[in-house]
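To close the chapter, one final illustration. This time we ask the reader to focus less on the individual chains and more on the assembly as a whole: which components sit near each other, and how the overall shape emerges from the parts.
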Amino acid sequence: MKRKSILIPAFLMMILAQWLLPGKMIWDNEQVLRTGTAYKFKIQPIDPYDPFRGKYIVLDFEANRFVTPSDQNWNRRDAVHVHLGTDDQGFAKILDLSIDPPSANPDYVQAEIARIRTRINSDSSTIRINYPFHTFYMEESKAYDAEVYTRRGRLDSNQVAYALVNVLDGKAVIQDVFINDTPIREFVLEEKKNEASDF
Amino acid sequence: MSMLKELPKLLEAGIITDAVAADIEHYYRQQKKSNSNRLFVAFGILGAILVGLGVILILAHNWDTLPRITKTVIAFLPLLVSQGVCAWALFKKPDSTTWRESGAALLFFAVGSAIALVSQIYNIDGELYEFLFGWLLLCWPIIYVLRSSIASLLFLSGITYYAAESGYWNFPNIEPYWYWIFLALMLPHYYSLFKNQPKSNFLIFHNWMIPLSLTVTLGTVALDNGDLLFWGYMSLFGLFYLIGEKPFFTDQKARNNGFRFIGAIGSICILLFFSFEFYWSELSELDGGIKQFLSGPEVIVTGVLTIVALVLLAQHYNERGDGRIKPFAPVFVLFFITFVIGFFHPIAVVLTNLILLGLGVSTIFQGIKEDHLGILNFGLLIIAALAICRFFDEQLSFVLKGILFLLVGIGFFATNYSMLKNRVHHEA
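The assembled structure is written out below.
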């Protein structure tokens, strides 16, 4: 009886903890998706495989470099806040970098410095950023084709691939990946149909 | 079963009475029942593990035609079902090992699948070791709430993978300190198995998994003085061997004694590695000498392991007396002395070879003394391994290598023949 009196609360606490972690993950990400600001990040993907989470494409963004004066004391793997804005075509661009969250600009992302490159006799450095959103999970039969089509798209200046990312209070969640404003899954299906009919 | 078939013959011959025959029959029928219970548990656990893995693989397929909210609900279904199974096992079938262990295995994988699938649905980035950490932390209570040994074994595998992922593949950025905390958190269950179910198969599996896990993860402690961990490993293997020589383990079959086996094999592997000259000449040429090794986490870990092993060695000596001390028991002390000498003189390589030779010969004598062919041949194998290493050693001439091989080959034949002849003579 004594064991049972401890067992019931212990079992309930265990169940609660097992729901709490994934539940919090869902809550945090849903908040960003529902109330965050959407930004379009131009991409170039590569296709690897994660045995626990399925097939995914790794996204590398054009807006991942920023030039700063070389007297600023940045180090590789430093945490950094990336201030976001948009260019004249409506795609995301980096406005500034800071150690602390910005007070004026509401749209920023917590990221990490991947690399710092300073040319000889130059008073500026190019900082490359690792964003916390560079994987996009796809159904396994489509992931490789997605990578092939978007790589082809890089050679075709009429084709634009981008990730739609919602941003809120430093957190970011990928909504979807698009090629020419078509969601990548639908684009891959269409391309496969076109190739099949050509054949 | 063949004994049961012999019972009528024994009764007819008047060897046993009806009462004795009934007792023998009852005893063997109980054995058969307990074996089939164990089989049922094993199949239950296997089935649950396969179902769990199958769920993870199917869900990883990523059903992208479904809306996000539907996928999220599906992500939690395995978790809900397996928690239901565990609740049923705990409160309706508390004495059924099959239900508890199968439920625990199912729940272990369901937790992992829930976290993995939510990460997939929301495209959440993160390192593998972070995912493993969250999964393991949530699954640790399963061991104690469900009193589950399969959960303990899965947990042990998981923390070993976590330590390797963070300590080796993310070196030097991540230190897997949590591995040691997790290990400490599961040891009470191991102790409870040891005390309450000493003949359990689960305990045997733990007696293999724990030393294997420690062998894999000790290297993650290395920072700047990784070479010192050779000594640390030798002390670890010495410790394993001495644990394996405790009466509880020596009373069991040899194949159940993971500590002793891994301790012995590990010690031999390290000695064979150090039987080559190249490492010792590098050690003696180091600028800093021995002083550069006297700092860092490696020193602390090696020191603790050596002290604990020395305490067990002293107990081993007191329990058995000088004549019966096992050859492998003091090897880590000899290695320590040789390691220190190695900083000052390359004679350490000769000493290492002599230790190996002495280990092989004394194991052979132990085999002869105990009339055990397995131990005798193990000693011969040590010497054969040493001979093979010397064969590939460029420092020795062909003639010397040839003589060594001849001696080892003759030794194999002579000792086995002699022991078998003695056995036949005694039986006659």
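The helical segments of chain A are 2-35, 140-155, 184-198. The first strand of chain A starts at residue 37 and ends at 46. With these observations in hand, you are ready for the problems at the end of the chapter.
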